[in-house]
Every structure is written in structure tokens, then in C-alpha cells.
Design a protein that fits this description.
The structure holds 2 protein chains of 2 kinds. Helix content of chain A is 0%, strand content 55%. Chain A is mainly beta. Chain A is globular and about 35 Å long. The chains are: A mainly beta, B mainly beta.
Chain lengths: 115, 112
């Protein structure tokens, strides 16, 4: 069973398009995240939701809009895609209050290429 | 301003030897430190962690050492195995896991 699953794994799209990446976790965690790994391999947090409420919103363009229909899902919608959006996007979850403390569980990543 | 740094982008060791991966941080508010391992085309997976109240945590072949005064932590893998070849990320956080700050990663290659 995949604990954190995200789809699609690979996505190639043209500039200006709108696309979504879906994420689901079956770990019963309260908190979900989106991370971006850019060409320099840095892992940077974009958003964090706790029980469907946005708690972290780093400096991310408004074209990126996360949506959390329930605490097991956090989808990422990107409008008007730009070349610089090409990256690997990782969904993740954690149970901050649990014994696992600050351990974050990552999905396998979604490779987005904007052409 | 990069608060967590892994100054060695790559490390190559012989199978059976010790691998030592280093990480430095600048934020004294960090109180929890983690190491993640990442294979190509996969997401990072949790490897080992250490709380700031400890200076050492061991799990099998993996040991993490924390030197708070130097704001430095290291991951020791002994003996190293070819399957350990991966990118290793150091991460640091305060009470909110979501604010975990990651280092750049170190690519470890263990040669048979």
C-alpha cells in the first residue's frame, strides 16, 4: 500500500496551460504538504495544510493554488504554467503531534515539464 | 539565506568502509534533525532522526551525531553497502514539521 500517492507521476505541458496534481495519504495524518525540488535539487516547502486549513504558505506565486477537500487529500492546481515551473513536486504528510514527531512521509514525486 | 547546508555535494566510498555525511545549520531554534534518503525517481524516505536533547542516535548501521555547540550533525553509515548509494538530505525543524528546512543533499556512491 502506498502511504502517500500522487498523480500524475510525469506531466509534460505547454506554457500557459492549467494543470493539477493530486495527492492522497492513507496514513491518517493531520498535516499535508507540497514541496518543490528545483533544478538545483533544493527541497523547498510550498504549502502546508492541517485538517484542511492552510497553515504554511511560503512565497509562492498566486498561480499555485492548493485545495484540500479533506485531511487525506491535498491537490495542487497551477494556472498559466511558465517554463520556470518545471520541477519535481512532492506531496508529503506528517502527524506532528504523534510519536513520529517531525517525520515527513513523501510521495514519489510528480515530474512537471513545461515546454 | 540557507539555514541548512550540506557542503559536500557528493561522496564516494568503498563497500565495507564507513560513510560520513555532514550537515551544518545556522538556526539555533531548530530542535529536531532528520536524515532522508532518496533514490532516483522516488520520493525522499525517512532514515533516522535526533532530538536536540541527545547527541547520538543509532539505528543498525546508521548513527547520527549532533554537536549543538557547533551546530553540526553527521550521519555515519558503517559498513557501507552498494544499496546505500542514494542522495541523502539533512533536514532541521522546530516544533512544526512542516517548516523542516532541507539541505542541498549529498550524493553517496558506494563502490563494490
Amino acid at each position: 500500500d502506498t502511504a502517500v500517492s500522487q498523480t500524475p507521476k510525469y506531466l509534460v505541458t505547454q506554457m500557459g496551460n492549467d494543470k493539477s496534481i493530486k495527492c492522497e495519504q492513507n496514513l491518517g495524518h493531520d498535516t499535508m504538504y507540497w514541496y518543490k525540488q528545483d533544478s538545483k535539487k533544493f527541497l523547498k516547502i510550498m504549502f502546508s495544510y492541517n485538517n484542511k486549513e492552510l497553515i504554511i504558505n511560503e512565497t509562492v506565486p498566486n498561480r499555485f493554488s492548493p485545495k484540500s477537500p479533506d485531511k487525506a487529500h491535498l491537490n495542487l492546481h497551477i494556472n498559466s504554467l511558465e517554463l520556470g515551473d518545471s520541477a519535481v513536486y512532492f506531496c508529503a504528510s506528517s502527524q506532528v503531534r504523534g510519536l513520529s514527531g517531525n517525520t515527513i512521509y513523501f510521495g514519489e514525486g510528480s515530474w512537471l515539464t513545461v515546454v | 539565506d540557507q539555514q541548512v547546508k550540506q557542503n559536500s555535494p557528493s561522496l564516494s566510498v568503498q563497500e565495507g568502509r564507513i560513510s560520513i555525511l555532514n550537515c551544518d545549520y545556522t538556526n539555533s531554534m531548530f530542535d529536531y534533525f532528520l536524515w532522508y534518503k532518496k533514490y532516483p525517481a522516488e520520493g525522499p524516505t525517512f532514515l533516522i532522526s535526533i532530538s536536540s536533547i541527545k547527541d547520538k542516535n543509532e539505528d543498525g548501521r546508521f548513527t547520527v551525531f549532533l554537536n549543538k555547540s557547533a551546530k553540526h550533525l553527521s550521519l555515519h553509515i558503517v559498513p557501507s553497502q552498494p544499496g546505500d548509494s542514494a542522495v541523502y538530505f539533512c533536514a532541521a525543524s522546530g516544533t512544526n514539521a512542516g517548516k523542516s528546512t532541507f539541505g542541498d543533499g549529498t550524493t553517496l556512491t558506494v563502490k563494490p
